[in-house]
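Prompt: I keep going back and forth on a fold encoding question. Comparing notes only helps if you start from a blank page. Show me how you would write down a chain together with its backbone fold. Please set it down just below, with no commentary around it:
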Amino acid sequence: MTCLEVISPGKINLFLRITGKRSDGYHELVSLMSPIGLADKLRIELDGRGRDTGKNSDSAIRVSCSDPDVPCDDTNLAFRAAVLFAHEYQKKTEKVPFRSLDIYILKNKYPWAQGLAEAAPMPLLYCWH
């Protein structure tokens, strides 16, 4: 098992303009972001790597957080980033990148739904670099 602890810095949008709507329902954006002094601490545990695809090619992805107000389901951005990465990795390599991935948000310092955003998905990229 591989374990990594990282700091996920927060950001605030200084400027945001919606420039269009994509076919998948998301919006095209132009924005300018700036880091802020808040950050979360994440622990990422990865079990298994590079397994050939086969009948049981699904990967288990779990998110947990010390703050009960933070969603730990498929609406969580860290969860969505992990799912997207696993899908793209499998599509390109015909292997699943991990058997299981656990994302623990240890210190959630962001006021929930107050216009600030964490960069929680970004530390997931470090697992594969």
Notes: The chain has one domain: 2-10+38-126.
